[in-house]
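Moderator note: this is an archived Q&A kept for reference. The question asked for a predicted structure of one protein chain; the sequence and the answer are reproduced below.
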Amino acid sequence: MTGVASPSPASAFRPAFARLAENTPAWTAAVVVIAVALIAWSAQLTIPMEPVPITLQSYAVLTVGALSGARLAFLALVAYVGLGLSGLHLFAGGRTGFEVLAGPSGGYVVGFIVAAVLVGWLQENYARLRILPLFGAILLGHAVIMALGAGWLAWQKGLAFAIEKGTLPFIPGAVFKSIGVLATVIVVERLAGTPRAR
């Protein structure tokens, strides 16, 4: 008896990308680069709308969160936002710079970071690849993105405008993208040999 408690099954769950990144710093960097590329690519798949376009970005962000865990998701999203602010054309529609944060989309960009970390943490500590809890975490992630995005838009344009232009148009897509995130995460984790949660 050493007196050291063994980790519980819940605390021991590591998503596929997190396990990969634990191998070496080079793998960590590779996972972050791939995540940034996926998010940047998804930002260019847009349906033009004013003042905020509909994109596939939340799908990529929440997928990265669920497959990476909180720490790695934070690194990937901070890297993405930092590169976008530094002058690379990574934001929706190829935009770049601090004017994106100051503009109507600023709250959604911040929401991406918060939601990815939240979904990653919930996957590691609660959902652990169980379908219903994971789907709930993904829906919550979308709700966080829309709440922060609409909140920033409401501060700029008023609450009624934010609900009409920054919330209602995004709800149907959020549901479909949540289903897509769930399916993607389950397939990737199965291919990675992640055992079923109990």
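Archived answer notes: The radius of gyration is 17 Å.
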